[in-house]
């Protein structure tokens, strides 16, 4: 009897030590695979174990390497809305059910991407009508890591009135538009975290790719060095508040009612373990586990947290995109982002956000990129404008015209040149072939300057596909700007109703 028990324990131990075949985190029930390109499937198994994957009539094989990693590729798949099973077999069998084939988009950034449908405008109506079983959403759990990870928590949800409230609103409205037009399944991989800077989403390779990026790492190290003293000071404030609150409770209801001090909040207290601002920390934990899942492209809404260092943003953002593409190994896949909306940011006439928008626009120099504007649909008093429907629509316009070859306009007017004409300047634009319009009021938010670099509010009028700008204080203009503030009133549009991109003709 004892020998039998010993043998059972030995067999159990061997079983526990054996690594079952396991798939990477995105290969779960209700997944969407990318059509039209090879589909990598990967995971873990025992070293040397042979793994077979079958899906949609295809069978592919791989052998786990010395570290237990394996990867194989399915040949190009056509779109398919009929649920199928993906089966991975080694010493054990893993079955992934209800798998569709269509368009897969990675949605990332900070709070305006994370913002759910439940908090978008007309949320109740949107949720009640969200019956789109061919749209699927995978929410990556918020996690920070000091080194690249393989696994992350999350699950695919089928779009319905019971689930859509938790989808990324921008991503959902984008996906709904595409699905209605293309008729194929759409998968959204939502890896976003509010209040985070671009450097948190950069891979180690990206953040070490340029000597200039050392300033970001040095700034973070300073934050880490200062954290213990700042944390101690914060703890003292909390203790003092708790003591006052306790005394008010003892004194009775009247005293407690008068004690209305809000408890101290750790705003700006950075550097704690697991801080979402950790450079590379979100890439390591929330993007790396997704690599190299087959994608059509990526959507990005971020920049608010970098407005205080706008001069750094273009280089960091461009490096992030370049290295994401390199890590996924699928070429220069489409990468579209939302330019920051109009928001006072403490001072509506300030220009931090204007310079950040410029940095975003400069990143259009990378191939296969696109920018949806929100300069006319923000809320000056709220960093989270709720009109995510229009943001998603404008992103979808870019995708439909540039990827899916649907005829139409996808961009508002973009600055080309400003030429002096006497005491005025004539501004020319791209994407103005169908004319320009200012709605029912005069053009707003144009300023003009001479060689002294002093800008004055300007009068602007539309002449066909150009704008003529002048101000009585400027007799010999050399520079013009449009919507160049945190929260401008921007009312220049093209005939398609798409807003003009904020610009400046100078480099001052």
Q: Tell me the number of strands.
A: 24
The geometry reads as globular
- Distance separating the two termini: 88 Å
Structural class: alpha+beta
Largest beta-sheet characterization = 11 strands, mixed
Write a structural description.
By secondary structure, the protein is of the alpha+beta class. The protein has eleven helices and 24 strands. It has helices at residues 2-17, 111-114, 123-128, 169-182, 204-207, 214-251, 253-258, 281-287, 310-328, 352-362, 388-402; strands at residues 22-23, 32-34, 39-44, 50-55, 58-63, 69-74, 80-89, 93-109, 132-139, 156-159, 186-192, 297-301, 335-338, 369-372, 414-421, 424-430, 436-437, 446-449, 455-457, 459-463, 466-470, 479-482, 493-494, 503-504. Strands 2, 4, 5, 7, 8, 9, 10, 11, 12, 13 and 14 form an eleven-stranded mixed sheet that branches. A four-stranded antiparallel sheet has the order 15-16-21-20, with no helix packed on it. A four-stranded antiparallel sheet has the order 19-18-22-24, with no helix packed on it. A hairpin with a 2-residue loop joins strand 20 (459-463) and strand 21. Helix 9 packs parallel to helix 10 (352-362). The longest helix is centred in the middle third of the chain and has 38 residues, at 214-251. The radius of gyration is 27 Å and the shape is globular. The N and C termini lie far apart (88 Å).
